[in-house]
Each structure stands twice: as structure tokens, then as C-alpha cells.
Amino acid sequence: MGKNIPGDWVNELKKCERLYPGFSDAVPFIKGVYDAADKYLKANPVKPVAVFDVEEAEEKARSGETINLNPNIDTGEAVGLLKALSGAIVKANPGLKETAKELNRKSEHFLENSPPEIGKADLIEFRDSLIKEAVLEKDLATFLFSFLLSSFYRQQLNSISEVLRTDLWEGGNCPLCGEEPHYGMLTPEDGAKQLECWLCGTEWLHTRIKCPFCDNEDHEKLGYFTADDSEICRVNYCQSCCQYYKVFDARKFHADGKIVLAIHNLATLAYDLLARKEGFTPGSRLEWVNDNELEKSDRQN
Ligand SMILES: [Zn+2]
Ligand SMILES: [Zn+2]
């Protein structure tokens, strides 16, 4: 098994239902989306990126430079998958019927007005326009588009990520695609901090007392908090750049084989809200919290 194969998400969902109280309600929704993507990608396989210079990659890692590999995505396939996901969210939540209809309409429009291949930035721009036009709420937009992008990236880059010398990398961002992380874990073996790229799935070890976003190593400005008497999910924050990311302590739960951290992330979005309430923003720039949730909690305080 490769280290970046999405893994056994069905079992991870079950595990996370046990680990994180309150997550069960969201499970059918997430399961529907994962199922739809599996089906779509099986019918429309994405070609892996073929050309890759291993020596050049090692050279770059040694000099602290990310490879910045950001492959183009077929626009028709991206919109096809988006529509499949949109179908899945209505099935799981019929209340989203109008949302899905409007999303499909905008997606068709996007397809008609885009070149045959697009990059990550184009899809992020499309996502932001959907938020701005109130087609999607921030959290749903983040979920759908991070899932969409990572589905393509993982298929395209998995074979490279597997042979990448991540041990040469000391940076805080992804050595392969350059993206900033949103989560990582303390490994079950020895509690080392291992970050994972939410986009391409590459994993790399990172100095435990160091901010991945601004490289701050002043332990007085770095910290973490937990919540609900659970020590599994930590919100690591940096008071220097005021950003956060989440770290899951895999020593605290039984883990065998590949841990699907993307699901642990979805199971702990309440922690993102807590981090925002403390004044920290996500270093990944993935917004999992809606503005009205922040306002609501302001009023309650
Ligand atoms: Zn990456
Ligand atoms: Zn920082």
C-alpha cells in the first residue's frame, strides 16, 4: 500500500464516529460525497503526471525549495466531478436542492467560459465567486472544492509523492506542490510531528516546536489547545503570525495502516471555530467557519 492512497475511508469514518462525539450526524453526507467521487473517478480515471526528475527534486529539497508541482486539471472532468458531488449532497440533504441546482448552473457556465485545462487557482477563484454570489456557504464551498482539488491532485501526484525524499525537507509547506498544511499528526510510533498536504497527500516530518507558516521557533509564542476533555485533536497556534493548524495525536487512538486525516479534519471542524474565536486564521487559507457562526458566538459571549 502506498503512503498516499486515500486509504480506507469507510473504516476511518466509523472510527471517527467513535472518537469524536457529535460527528455521526455529518457522516451520511460525507459518505455520500466520497462514494460519488469514487464512482466518478473509477469511470473517469485521471492520468498520473508522468515526467519527473528525481535528482532535480532531491536538489531542490536540499536547498529548501518546494518542487511546486501543480498539474493542470481537465476542465470537463473537474466540472463532471463537481456535478457528481452536487448530486450526492442533495441525496444526503434534500434541503440543498436549490443550492445544487444553482451550483450545476454556475458550473456549466464556468465550463463554457474556461479553457480545456485549468489550474488550482482557477478553481479557487470559481469557489470564491460562488461564495460571493451566495450560491454556497463558506464551509460547504471549502469542503466541496478542497475535496475536488485533492481528488485530482492525489491521482496525478501519488506516484511521485511516494518516491519523494521528504526526509530532506525541513520546510513547513508541502515539498511537492507547495501548499500550506491544514493538519498533521503526532505519529503513533514516537509522537513525531508529521504534516500532511491536504491537497496532494504528501507527508513530511516537521520540527515539533516550529510554526510551519512563519518558521517561528520561539516556544513562548507557540502553543496548542484541546477541547472537550479530548486530547486527540490539538489546535496548534502561533502568536507571531496568528495562524493555526490542527494536529491529531495518533498515540491516543488505535491506528493501524494509513490514517485518513482528511476525515479527522472533517470530524473536528468545531476546533476550527474555536481557533477563529481565539483570533487565529487558518494558515492553509481553508475557511471552515462561516461568518455567521463567528457573529453568533460573539453575541453569546
Ligand atoms: Zn502537496
Ligand atoms: Zn507563525
What can you see in these coordinates?
The protein is of the alpha+beta class and 301 residues long. The chain has one domain (9-300): FdhE-like domain (FdhE-like fold), CATH 3.90.1670.10. It is 45% helix and 13% strand. Strands 3, 4, 5, 6, 7, 8 and 9 form a seven-stranded mixed β-sheet that branches. Strands 1-2 form a two-stranded antiparallel sheet. Helix 4 (75-92) crosses helix 7 (138-163). The longest helix has 26 residues, at 138-163. The model is unreliable at 1-5 (pLDDT under 50). One zinc ion binds at residues 211, 213-214, 216, 238, 240-241, 243.
Features:
10 helices; alpha+beta; 13% strand; binds zinc ion; 301 residues; seven-stranded mixed sheet
Give a brief rundown of this model:
This protein has 301 residues and is an alpha+beta fold. The chain has helices spanning 9-19, 27-43, 54-62, 75-92, 97-112, 120-132, 138-163, 261-267, 269-277, 291-300; strands spanning 73-74, 117-118, 183-186, 193-196, 203-205, 222-227, 230-238, 243-249, 281-282. Strands 3, 4, 5, 6, 7, 8 and 9 form a seven-stranded mixed β-sheet that branches. Strands 1-2 form a two-stranded antiparallel ribbon.
